[in-house]
Design goal:
Layout: E1 2-6, E2 16-19, E3 29-39, H1 41-47, H2 52-55, E4 61-62, E5 66-74, E6 85-89, E7 100-104, E8 108-110, H3 117-121, H4 124-134, E9 145-149, H5 154-165, E10 169-174, H6 179-185, E11 189-192, E12 205-210, H7 217-220, E13 224-232, H8 237-244, E14 252-255, H9 262-273, E15 281-286, H10 290-297, E16 305-309
Parallel strand pairs: 9-10, 9-12, 10-11, 12-13, 13-14, 15-16
Antiparallel strand pairs: 1-2, 1-4, 3-5, 3-7, 3-16, 5-6, 6-8
Bound molecules: NADP nicotinamide-adenine-dinucleotide phosphate.
């Protein structure tokens, strides 16, 4: 099969389309013919070697966690049939930038009707991060105030919609050019981060979800209500210290490490079926143009998601 691989850590030029052996599923896994693969910032962090502690030094390495496609083959007892349309967040080193990938059946979910393959591929990692992040702390109740920082990005655009679906009053933080976009996602209130420091407001929030990890608990913790929680996508030493002493305070600090989960994808699929969540794909690239897609995701300016089309 063809796959977009790297043979060394480095820049986007390391990505090459190459013939590699077809992966074979073990018991409890499925072989999926990939139609589209979603792109996430973690992909370029793996490509440039900053995550080599996880990826190791074995090459070729196929990047990519998010796939949408069709079941080709299952192994053992299975709830899926060849031809079923599925999406999944793969576990590490499985490789989504390829014509085929294997996934644990526990990480797979049927694609809800109405989503294109590109939209389905854009969904798993970012939406799971948003869902699992917003589930930290006490459950959201109707009209709870939730602030999403980085509301226009992959994680943030899902977090705005999922927090709204959970009943929250959502404040979205983004730059001026994305104000209308996050309003269209359903945000009740929008703060332009270049015009206003959201940590200086008198409003108090039940949850501050820092989807882009650009603030800190030291700053954002001040705008939490009693019992409120700050959640970030990237832990640092300060966050780890605050998290260790959560029991001493009336507010808490947490970080999210996203888990692959077919069950959580079913929760998101239900939101999609109900019309409460919709992925937004800013741009699609053919698989062989993965390097251009990586250049774009590294700008940190993507609105919604980028996707590689494996089958045109
Ligand atoms: N721990 C985990 O398991 C996990 C899981 C998923 C993601 N992550 C991490 O979470 C981060 C976000 O992921 P993502 O997929 O959402 O990234 P992304 O889609 O690439 O984020 C891009 C967005 O960030 C916004 N942005 C940039 N600087 C900002 C700032 N100072 N304040 C507010 N918004 C800003 C940009 O909007 P403007 O152009 O309007 O600024 C753009 O829309 C990444 O670092 C990723 O690696 C971690």
């Amino acid at each position: 099969m063809k796959a977009l691989i790297i043979n060394n850590y480095g820049g986007p030029e390391q990505l090459h389309l190459q013939e590699v052996p077809l992966p074979s599923p073990s018991a409890g896994e499925a072989l999926i013919r990939v139609h589209a693969a979603g792109i996430n910032p973690v992909d370029y962090k793996m490509r440039n070697g900053s995550m080599r502690i996880i990826t190791g030094n074995k090459f070729p390495l196929i990047l990519g966690f998010d796939i949408a496609g069709v079941i080709e083959q299952t192994k053992g007892k299975s709830e899926y049939r060849p031809g079923d349309k599925v999406f999944s967040k793969l576990s590490v080193r499985r490789g989504g930038y390829a014509e085929f990938a294997t996934a644990s059946e526990k990480h797979i979910c049927h694609i809800p009707a109405g989503l294109t393959m590109a939209e389905a591929a854009a969904t798993p990692l970012a939406s799971l991060t948003a869902l699992q992040g917003l589930q930290k702390g006490d459950p959201i109740k109707p009209d709870d105030k939730v602030l999403i920082n980085g509301a226009s990005g992959g994680v943030g655009s899902f977090a705005v919609q999922i927090a709204k679906a959970m009943g929250a009053y959502v404040t979205a933080v983004c730059s001026e050019r994305n104000i209308q976009f996050v309003k269209d996602l359903g945000a009740d209130h929008v703060i332009d981060y270049n015009a206003e420091d959201f940590t200086k407001t008198k409003t108090r929030y039940k949850k501050v979800f820092d989807a882009v990890a650009k603030s800190s608990f030291s700053r954002s913790g001040k705008i939490l209500e009693y019992g409120g929680i700050y959640i970030t996508t990237i832990p640092n030493k300060g966050l780890l210290f605050h998290r260790a002493v959560n029991f001493l305070r009336k507010t808490s600090a947490e970080f999210i490490l996203t888990k692959s989960s077919g069950n959580d994808l079913r929760v998101i699929a239900d939101y999609i079926k109900n019309g409460q969540v919709r992925p937004y794909v800013q741009k699609e690239f053919p698989l062989q143009d993965g390097a251009r897609a990586h250049e774009m995701i590294e700008t940190n300016r993507v609105r919604g998601k980028l996707v590689l089309k494996v089958i045109a």
